[in-house]
Amino acid sequence: MFVRLVRFHAHGGPEVLQVEEAPTPEPGAGQVLLRAEAIGVNFADTKIRAGADGIFARPLPGSPTGDVVGSVVAMGPDVSGFAVGDRVAALVAEGAYADFVAVDAAWAVPVPAGLDAASATALPMLAPVALRVLRMGRLAAGETVLVQSAAGGIGHLAVQLAKLLGAKAVGVVGSATKADFVRSLGADDVVTTEGEWPTGVDVVVDAVGGQTLLRGLDSLAPFGRAVMYGAASGEIPTVPGRSLFGLKSLAGFGVMPWRQARPEQARAEVAELTQLIVEGKLRVAKHAEFPLPEAAKAHQVLEDRTNLGRVLLVP
């Protein structure tokens, strides 16, 4: 049996994404096979597809990553805790834009009954990253956090989680529309990427890198903490030591090393976030959804930086 799979055989614009026929994946040991219901599209894959260097470099041909929600249709050996028909969400490292995907059962997240697809796609990666970068920054009640890319998939969740932690959230955005969106999430203040940023903040969470990270460091108060969890700009800057001499610190975060280093805590935080979403305390915004063959349109939305929250593909 053949299924649809989106791949690219050359680096370039969104148009290089092609729908192909591929054999249905076979779940290996410790894996379950999902029939995809929805696929969360992430900005990093636009960089990978375009052929960016550094952390985005991947060999050709390639197939994007993604946060897949679907129903279990088959299980490989050594799988426990799941049954055929269960609805789960999982982060897929390659081949995510497809009708069927094989995922590791160890990190597949059970999806509560009745939860919408957009919210479910945030469970494996977006929401855990948003919470963990705030906690890695040791954000405390009454403190102020500067959230870069505050209207994006992770950023719009970080704003809400900061408020739930009792902190003041200041979002950085690129347009008036995004500013209104971030305010609707409860942000205490919103600033633009080109405007003046506050000084004396306690925590900065940054997935942009480059000069944006350096500006964020300048915004920190003494004993302030910055957490970098991505490099959407394509640049991981060399940080001058003088930027940290003012009693400031900088840490880096990656979801896969976090899972490996603290697996029990990582799973506990996923369960915590699932409950927050089910209770309506954390809202996952869906900006748009596209049919699987229109993956190029989804990438274009992300590259245009117009999305307010999550962009989905639907098989």
UniProtKB/TrEMBL annotation:
Keywords: NADP, Oxidoreductase. One of its GO terms (cellular component) is cytosol. It holds the Pfam family ADH_N. SMART domains: PKS_ER (SM00829). One of its GO terms (molecular function) is quinone reductase (NADPH) activity. Coiled coil: none annotated. InterPro entries: ADH-like_C, ADH-like_N, ER, GroES-like_sf, NAD(P)-bd_dom_sf, Quin_OxRdtase/zeta-crystal_CS. Residues 12-313 form the Enoyl reductase (ER) domain. This is NADPH:quinone reductase-like Zn-dependent oxidoreductase.
